[in-house]
Design goal:
By secondary structure, this protein is mostly helical. The chain contains 7 helices and no strands. Helix 1 packs antiparallel against helix 7.
């Protein structure tokens, strides 16, 4: 993504740490939580890789179609999962947003600062995704205030705690807003 290097590195660190925590969440005894954690880990690591500042490392041109293919496959998996649980709808939107960003970066000339037509304003898809993820961040932030007793989390392992999974998704939502703003 494009933008100043320091915030870019902070975004890389946030997304990589979130991805690492999600890998640990995959050890849960609950199959549904393992699946969700796997999708979250993919998003976290993918966002970390995409967020590396362009001033430090410019990925080869084949990287963006590869990202689009990986997240396109994840989107197909999320479509299938939505049939079982509406929670996966957020995973579907996230994976499609990653595909969108990869495609925009693939077709952007040179630095990609004018990938949408050179100052014509925010494209519709980017605007819709920004609205969605901003709303998601605000809603998740409100729901994050933990009440371990009310959630029944007192007897759960740290990897199965719902407020930690929400915090993980909240940090990725914040990261997605930051990435979309720099697109």
């Amino acid at each position: 993504m494009h933008g100043p290097a320091s915030p870019g590195w902070l975004l890389v660190a946030l997304c990589a740490a979130t991805g690492a925590y999600c890998v640990l969440r995959m050890r849960s005894g609950v199959e549904e939580q393992r699946r969700a954690a796997g999708g979250d880990a993919l998003m976290g690591f993918g966002m970390a890789a995409m967020a590396v500042p362009a001033a430090v490392f410019t990925p080869p041109s084949w990287t963006w179609p590869l990202y689009a293919a990986v997240f396109g496959a994840a989107a197909l998996r999320a479509v299938w999962a939505v049939r079982r649980s509406p929670h996966h709808l957020h995973h579907l939107v996230g994976t499609l947003a990653m595909v969108y960003m990869a495609v925009v970066m693939a077709v952007s000339p040179g630095s990609g600062h004018h990938a949408h037509g050179g100052g014509a304003g925010v494209p519709l898809v980017t605007g819709v995704l920004l609205l969605y993820f901003t709303g998601y961040v605000l809603l998740t932030g409100v729901r994050l205030v933990p009440d371990a007793v009310a959630d029944g989390a007192a007897g759960l392992g740290w990897g199965d705690r719902p407020e930690l999974a929400r915090a993980c998704r909240l940090s990725m939502g914040i990261g997605m807003v930051a990435m979309l703003l720099t697109l």
